[in-house]
Design brief:
The chain has 318 residues and is an all-alpha fold. It has helices at 17-26, 33-39, 44-47, 50-71, 74-100, 106-131, 142-168, 180-199, 214-223, 239-256, 261-279; strands at residues 175-176, 231-232. It has a domain at 120-313.
């Protein structure tokens, strides 16, 4: 015989304080005053901190670099030193944020947009305008096709790398994949060497004369290092001053090279050598630095995370 309560849902009965706590848990949680204030859109001027001004200067350099590279001619040289100048501003916003602080994470997302413009889009447009087919046959000639493909990969893979770091930026002590500023520096250095070689009328087949396809193919190959599972050392401390000195050297060579192209070519070759030394560092790091580096990446402790550290330094999330 079937019991009268069989098949029925068991109803839990509460009494007194237990019943009150039971229904209190079901009610929507009341927001605190600070939480309600965070949900109200703030004016832009209240969101901008001193570090965000340097981030905006980085973005401005990227926009101006795009404009100059479209003009061609001497605009290529101006676009190159504007991209390098954007790297200096990008390196300064982190220390400025740590010094003056910030009460929000607005700069995190602003830094991402600025880096995408200066280190992804601007180098891609520079490569396209410098190495496209002069006759205008973009998809017909081999030179035009390679120029389009390399510029598209530089922009697209760079943005994918930045998006990944927006998701995982707080977890890794080192870089997984070549940082976008390093990739932009390599593009600028090689493009500057090509630019000064043409100015000095140094003719090298497939490099500075005829169909220039070797350099765009090199950019196409190197662009995949930004999304590769390679581990790159993240330099901290006093070595950052050395990096700033290298960038200033490249800027000076691009500016002075307008009067003396030999100085421009010498400075570009020197910085290119330094950039390529950093590019091949995963080959000499032993286990966990070549392919599959993310499995061996060291994690950052939550208490050691600096909320004002620059995104491409890897801890705050752009």
């Amino acid at each position: 015989m079937k019991e009268p309560w069989a098949g029925r849902r068991r109803v839990t009965r509460f009494r007194g304080r237990e019943r009150m706590n039971h229904w209190r848990e079901r009610l929507p949680r009341r927001l605190t005053r600070k939480q309600r204030q965070d949900r109200v859109p703030k004016p832009i001027l209240k969101l901008i901190s001193p570090a965000d001004i340097f981030t905006l200067m980085n973005f401005l350099c990227g926009v101006l670099a795009v404009m100059n590279s479209v003009d061609g001619g001497d605009g290529f040289r101006k676009a190159m030193y504007l991209i390098v100048l954007g790297m200096l501003f990008d390196g300064l916003d982190g220390p400025i944020a740590r010094k003056f602080g910030s009460s929000h994470r607005f700069g995190v997302w602003l830094d991402s947009l600025a880096d995408a413009a200066t280190f992804c889009i601007a180098p891609a447009i520079l490569v396209y305008n410098m190495f496209k087919d002069p006759s205008g046959s973009l998809f017909v000639s081999w030179q035009g096709f390679v120029a389009i493909l390399s510029s598209v990969c530089l922009a697209m893979l760079g943005i994918l790398r930045l998006a990944r770091f927006s998701f995982y930026a707080h977890k890794w002590k080192d870089f997984i994949g070549l940082p976008t500023p390093a990739m932009a520096l390599i593009v600028v250095c090689i493009s500057a060497c090509y630019y000064w070689s043409v100015k000095l009328e140094i003719e090298i087949e497939y490099l500075t004369s005829g169909q220039t396809v070797v350099l765009p193919l090199l950019f196409l190959f190197l662009s995949f290092t930004m999304v590769a599972d390679l581990r790159y050392r993240k330099f901290r401390g006093k070595i950052m001053y050395l990096e700033g000195t290298v960038l200033l050297l490249l800027i000076v060579s691009l500016l002075v090279g307008f009067e003396d192209p030999v100085i421009g070519l010498t400075g570009s070759l020197a910085v290119s050598l330094i950039a390529f030394m950093y590019l091949i560092t995963p080959l000499f790091g032993g286990r966990g630095r070549i392919w599959g580096a993310s499995k061996w990446a060291d994690l950052v402790d939550e208490e050691d995370v600096d909320p004002y550290m620059d995104h491409e330094e890897g801890l705050e999330g752009y």
